[in-house]
User: What shape does this take?
Amino acid sequence: DLLVDIYLLSEQNAAIEAAMGQLDPRQRQVILLHYFNGTSFKDIAKQQGVSYKTILRLKDKALAVLANIID
Assistant: This one.
């Protein structure tokens, strides 16, 4: 049923927004840029003026936080 599908999508979106709100702003930016905008981690590092490893650490911490919230 279309209405049920729309409701479930809105619930999922609300859950994702709430989880993203729990991230540090730098972590959230890395997740948004990479997973939603398709920006590479190397490009994010260049844009933010930090090392590639720093971006990977931010990504790893963000994904761990999100996994704990979603589980």
